[in-house]
Design a protein that fits this description.
23% of the residues lie in helices and 25% in strands. It is of the alpha/beta class and 469 residues long. The chain starts with 12 loop residues before the first strand and ends in a 19-residue tail after the last helix.
């Protein structure tokens, strides 16, 4: 039997989400754990034995790095996130919810690039050319070098690229483009993978900067195969509440710069503009101290943002008290409430508790725990915290205040905005500004005592401090 018929190739199955392969069909991917994504992969036509080398390998020190130099987009906040600007041949994926302002931002970027004598091709698959033209007129983005095409066919888009030979290509969005070589409607996993791979191949071959707009799922993840995020060079998330003017762009992946930067924008009727100093947006104005308010300094990337946390505690009308948050991590707020109840004897068991941030900003880092705890205690006792004081620190389950990073930068930003006192974790070695009085607190009980006004606050403000314990 060994010299007879050759062994037949066994069919292989591939996950449409992450590309994991298996010799037999299974219902769940063994890599990404997704259900119903295993499909039969096409068998290879043949195996090529010849191996050719297009270019000889060189020592890494002799490779020119000029092609990886970024050129500014003209939007300072976006350049901050991208690591200096766009790079020739780089592919950027910008994802966000519908109506958050992705198209407006990229149309502004395309206009600025065209005004600096760069040829730009803007491909829209979601709107008509007339709709995009009206938006461009509204935000002042009409430029002779900005070319517009409304297409949904991949071959036609590539034909436009061959004809225009742009320095920058914007595709809005990758889920609306379809290829005739792949079965299925536009937006499915196979189509998105084929369209993205083709555009990336053209971008690398032409040294053309490319920005792809991506949709998101109801869970906030990027729609399409997960391999899409691996193929592109930069992945940016566009965040914001459509009922608020604030927008944030953060880099999830960046091969050309840091991934801990965030850009702040303001969306209004005239378009979208960068916010170089957004801290003032997250503070409310009170003529007198109000119970249930505390100020912290959050780090969004490398940027400190002075943010106000508000809390409200009210008697519960039902058997199950409500715990509602806005702009804060609900699980961390629940943990802080439990620590207050157990370690500090603040009566919150039978009360509804609400916590929110000001200005629509979302805080997820643990450094805001101390501000949340003191705001809840202040609301529970209906006594205001001392004014012009910031609270920075992570709260542990034992009630201790744990150190956090970047305290020096946080205090410098708070001092710049007029704050004069701060409560920080014990053992903080960052240099505080000369204009601030800093108190180190080892645990939450000590922080509550400090909030009584003894040592935090100045002059007559001490009498207005929280009277607890």
């Amino acid at each position: 039997m060994s010299g007879g018929k050759g062994r037949e190739a066994r069919p292989a199955y591939r996950c449409s989400e992450c590309g994991w392969t298996t010799p037999k069909w299974v219902g769940r991917c063994g890599e990404c754990q997704a259900w119903g994504t295993i499909e039969e992969a096409a068998a290879p036509v043949g195996v090529t034995q010849a191996r050719t080398v297009a270019k000889a390998a060189r020592p890494i020190a002799e490779v020119e790095a000029d092609s990886a130099v970024a050129w500014p987009t003209g939007v300072e906040e976006l350049d901050r996130v991208l690591g200096g600007g766009l790079v020739g041949g780089a592919v950027v994926l910008l994802a966000g919810e519908p109506g958050v302002g992705k198209s407006t931002l990229l149309l502004d970027v395309a206009s600025r690039a065209a005004s600096h004598r760069r040829r730009v091709l803007y491909v829209t698959g979601e709107e008509s050319a007339a709709q995009v033209r009206l938006r461009a007129e509204r935000i002042g983005a009409l430029r002779p070098r900005l070319l517009l095409a409304a297409e949904t066919d991949l071959a036609t888009v590539l034909g436009h690229v061959d004809q225009v030979q742009p320095d920058l290509l914007v595709v809005d969005s990758v889920q609306t483009i379809a290829s005739d070589a792949v079965e299925g409607a536009a937006g499915n996993v196979s189509q998105v993978r084929e369209v993205a791979a083709s555009l990336i191949r053209v971008a690398k071959g032409r040294n053309m900067a490319t920005v792809l707009v991506g949709h998101v799922t109801k869970d906030g993840g990027i729609a399409g195969p997960r391999v899409l995020e691996h193929l592109v060079d930069v992945v940016c998330q566009f965040e914001g509440d459509r009922h608020n003017r604030l927008r944030m762009v953060r880099a999830v992946k960046n091969r050309y710069g840091p991934t801990d930067e965030v850009g702040c924008f303001e969306l209004d009727d005239s378009g979208i503009s960068g916010l170089v100093d957004p801290s003032g947006l997250f503070l409310s104005r009170h003529s007198a101290p109000v119970p249930g308010t505390a100020v912290t300094v959050a780090l969004e990337g490398r940027r400190p943002l002075v943010t106000e946390v508000q809390a409200l505690v009210a008697p519960s009308a039902g058997s199950n008290p409500r715990r509602t948050t806005s702009g804060l991590d609900s699980s961390r707020v629940a943990m802080v409430l439990a620590v207050l109840e157990r370690r500090c004897r603040v009566g919150l068991f039978g009360a509804d508790a609400y916590a929110a941030t000001v200005g629509g900003v979302r805080i997820t880092e643990p450094a805001s725990d101390l501000a949340v705890a003191l705001a809840m205690a202040s609301a529970s006792y209906d006594e205001p915290l001392p004014p012009r004081t910031v609270y920075i620190g992570e709260v542990g389950l034992a009630g201790e205040i744990r150190p956090v990073g970047g305290v020096g930068r946080r205090l410098a930003e708070a001092s710049r905005l007029g704050f004069t006192h701060a409560l920080v974790p014990a053992g903080t070695h960052d240099i505080a500004p000369d204009t601030m009085v800093v108190h180190e607190v080892p645990d939450l009980v000590t922080a509550l005592h400090r909030a009584r006004g003894g040592g935090s606050g100045d002059g007559g403000d001490q009498a207005q401090g929280l009277r607890l314990l």
